[in-house]
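To the wet lab folks,

You asked to see what we're planning to order before we commit. Fair enough. Below is the target structure as tokens, and below that is the sequence we designed to fit it. If anything looks off to you, flag it before the synthesis order goes out.
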């Protein structure tokens, strides 16, 4: 039977709906990142407090991804996504009308994590419509919704300045989430091939498999690096180079674009070349770029370095999730939530590392050196795992291929 091409298979309205849901959710998830410098004018904060503020939405997203991953398996990704969007309205209303202190703002930041948890519903919704040979591109297109970060970094501070209030930005953000909810409800459909829900005991069995934790570590670095830097770079550019809030956010936007739009590229190239091979290249590139940032070069130079580094991290996200459905296709909803949570924890840790070390040393150099070291450790781990995988899944003609193993799982080594 002749295989269908990507654009002849799957369900395009659902793929587009998953992208929109992920896009608007990411826009809201990182909303506080670019606004942090302006918010600090109302609530003065030291370096650690700023880092905590921009890290809390990522922490909330990490925790809630487990919840939404479980819900995706049991009630389906469409209904889970609808519940997620309605719940996201709560922190937006609170931030718009009810914040009176920094502690209350911390609560709003944590609750915004429900938007980041969209990952656990959006990606399975799209992925379950596509066969394994198209997983990388399908997950890449849906995952490119992290481009919503660009909307926040580009417009949040401009809107705050125009209206003379950062609170109004939370109110205005209600409009796009409502519009996307309506479009999503109309066009998105659950795949008829959606796996049956698993028992909790079966989930525990999945977590006993070493590959689950390996993928968590891989995504902790790629996605954690991307979302952590997306939330923190406005503070970095403002503090290190003295840029205004709007200009610092604009420079962050430039870097975020690289990570967002190269995610589907990473998925596509992983389909063609193999996810592990692509990830090896991307980890090496990201590690070198982060080490170069630690030299704190002139602003034009650091901008180019960060652009390339974010490009590697964003494409790496696509590469990781080209591998995941092939290894855990029957537990994709849960594994997406677990691996996504791990990525979020990486993103939570990154601002804290940079903020704590900056306050302790007065320089960002140690923080970026540590981030580079973590990325290179991931590269070493990947190299070791490739040797292990090759003992299980044969390669033919120098190109990775799928091999069924004893337990019925598959992976593209």
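Sequence we intend to order:
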């Amino acid at each position: 039977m002749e295989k269908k091409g990507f654009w002849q298979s799957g369900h395009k309205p659902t793929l587009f709906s998953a992208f929109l849901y992920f896009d608007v959710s990411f826009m809201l998830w990182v909303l506080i990142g670019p606004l942090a410098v302006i918010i600090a004018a109302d609530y003065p904060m030291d370096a650690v407090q700023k880092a905590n503020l921009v890290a809390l939405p990522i922490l909330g997203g990490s925790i809630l991804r487990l919840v939404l991953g479980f819900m995706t398996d049991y009630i389906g990704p469409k209904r889970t996504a609808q519940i997620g969007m309605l719940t996201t309205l709560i922190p937006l209303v609170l931030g718009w009308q009810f914040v009176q202190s920094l502690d209350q703002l911390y609560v709003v930041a944590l609750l915004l994590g429900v938007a980041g948890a969209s990952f656990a519903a959006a990606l399975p919704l799209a992925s379950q419509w596509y066969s394994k040979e198209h997983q990388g591109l399908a997950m890449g297109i849906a995952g490119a919704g992290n481009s919503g970060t660009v909307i926040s970094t580009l417009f949040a501070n401009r809107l705050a300045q125009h209206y003379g209030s950062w609170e109004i930005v939370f109110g205005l953000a209600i409009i796009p989430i409502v519009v996307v909810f309506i479009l999503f409800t109309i066009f998105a459909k659950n795949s008829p091939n959606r796996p049956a829900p698993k028992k909790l005991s079966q989930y525990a069995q999945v977590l006993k498999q070493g590959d689950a934790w390996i993928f968590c570590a891989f995504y902790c670095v790629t996605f954690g690096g991307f979302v952590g830097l997306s939330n923190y770079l406005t503070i970095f550019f403002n503090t290190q180079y003295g840029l205004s809030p709007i200009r610092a956010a604009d420079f962050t936007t430039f870097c975020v674009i690289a990570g967002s739009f190269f995610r589907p590229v990473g998925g596509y190239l992983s389909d063609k070349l193999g996810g592990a091979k692509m990830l090896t290249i991307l980890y090496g590139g990201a590690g070198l770029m982060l080490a170069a940032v630690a030299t704190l070069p002139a602003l034009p130079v650091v901008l180019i370095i960060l652009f390339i580094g974010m490009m590697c991290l964003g494409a790496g996200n696509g590469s990781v999730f080209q591998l995941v459905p092939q290894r855990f296709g029957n537990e994709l909803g849960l594994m997406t939530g677990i691996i996504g949570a791990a990525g979020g924890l990486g993103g939570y840790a990154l601002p804290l590392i940079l903020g704590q070390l900056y306050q302790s040393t007065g320089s960002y150099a140690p923080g970026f050196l540590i981030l580079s070291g973590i990325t290179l450790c991931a590269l070493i781990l990947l190299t070791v795992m490739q040797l292990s995988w090759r003992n299980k899944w044969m390669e033919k003609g120098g190109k990775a291929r799928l091999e069924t193993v004893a337990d019925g799982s598959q992976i593209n080594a």
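Structural context that might help your review: The domain at 11-191+205-400 is CATH 1.20.1250.20 (Growth Hormone; Chain: A;). Residues 89 and 174 are 7 Å apart (CA to CA).

Thanks,
Computational group
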